[in-house]
Design brief:
The protein is an alpha/beta fold. The protein has ten helices and 14 strands. The chain folds into two domains: about 220 residues, P-loop containing nucleotide triphosphate hydrolases (Rossmann fold); about 70 residues, Alpha-Beta Plaits (2-Layer Sandwich), CATH 3.30.70. Helix content is about 30%, strand content about 30%. A hairpin with a 2-residue loop joins strand 9 and strand 10. It starts with a strand and ends with a helix.
Length: about 300
């Protein structure tokens, strides 16, 4: 097993009586793209700020690139790229000045700046303008460039596709894939299930400050119930199939069930004894897994 880029042990954060994060134990391997999913307010941003040492934990501990994540731990900062969920830029700076200034702060050369600017569609004329005149989408592009331009070992991206149009989103996914091939570890939070399904090696799902699931997309899909649609040539009694799963729709000659994967062979065998004319077993999407965890 490779060494961990991120490891947390019982990490928690409270604000008075409000529990923002509780008992988070998580390991993210070097070189993987890890999606951190959850609705707004689930604790995703709090987790990222704890990993960056911007907040002090109320419980537990975290290590980032082998070093303790804590306020004042500046030695790891040069190896990190960070895109905050609420991006605040210096309004009087031009885009080019912003990127150059943040390059100097990182202490690493911006080896990928030119490529990123081109791929995300930021023109020279736009980079020469003051940031206060940027649209939300342009600010987000600039934020992505500054987070990745110095080729960090670990990129922490909080809702990175917010405000991007679909074509730029697609290019951003390609940027992530290329960064992964170069060995970068990417930890990004999102509530957009489809993008996690598209680009992540593994995902974790957070609910009300607690980690409720973690695994590869395929592992989470396998654990999810399948939607089975059976159509018959004659009237059937849907109750005869209730043993195999939850009957969610029923008509005289059509039954829809939610069935656990391990029950599928027995269900198919039972359907073979009935006047079956059509059978559809739908593979679950990551979105269905997500919604099931939040019921």
């Amino acid at each position: 097993m490779s060494s961990a880029a991120i490891e947390t042990r019982g990490l928690g954060k409270r604000y008075g009586r409000v529990r923002a994060l509780e008992d988070l134990s998580l390991r993210v391997e070097e070189g993987e793209v890890f999606g951190f999913l959850g609705p707004n307010g689930a604790g995703k941003t709090t987790t990222i700020r704890l990993l960056l040492g911007l907040l002090r934990p109320s419980a537990g501990a975290a290590t980032v690139l082998g070093r303790a994540a804590a306020p004042g731990a500046a030695e790891v900062r040069g190896d990190l790229g960070y895109l905050p969920g609420e991006l605040a830029l210096w309004p009087a700076f031009t885009g080019a000045h912003t990127l150059a200034f943040l390059e100097r702060l990182s202490g690493r050369p911006a080896v990928d700046r030119a490529a990123l600017v081109g791929r995300l569609g930021l023109t020279t004329a736009e980079l020469d303008r003051a940031v206060h005149g940027y649209s939300d989408g342009m600010k987000q592009k600039l934020g992505i460039v500054q987070a990745l331009q110095c080729r960090p070992k670990l990129a922490l991206l909080d809702e990175p596709t917010k405000g991007l149009d679909p074509l730029v989103q697609r290019e951003f996914y390609a940027v992530l894939a290329d960064a992964r091939r170069q060995g970068m570890t990417i930890f990004f939070s999102s509530h957009v299930i489809s993008e996690a399904e598209r680009v992540c090696d593994r995902v974790g799902m957070l609910r009300a400050g607690k980690l409720v699931s973690v695994g590869t997309v395929e592992e989470l899909r396998r654990a999810q119930r399948r939607r089975v649609i059976a159509v018959f040539g004659d009237d059937v009694d849907a109750a005869a199939l209730a043993h195999f799963g939850e009957v969610v729709e029923r008509e005289a000659r059509r039954v829809v069930l939610q069935v656990a994967q391990e029950e599928l062979p027995a269900l198919v065998a039972r359907l073979g004894m009935m006047p079956l004319v059509d059978l559809v077993v739908e593979p679950p999407s990551l979105e269905e897994v997500f919604l099931e965890r939040y019921r």
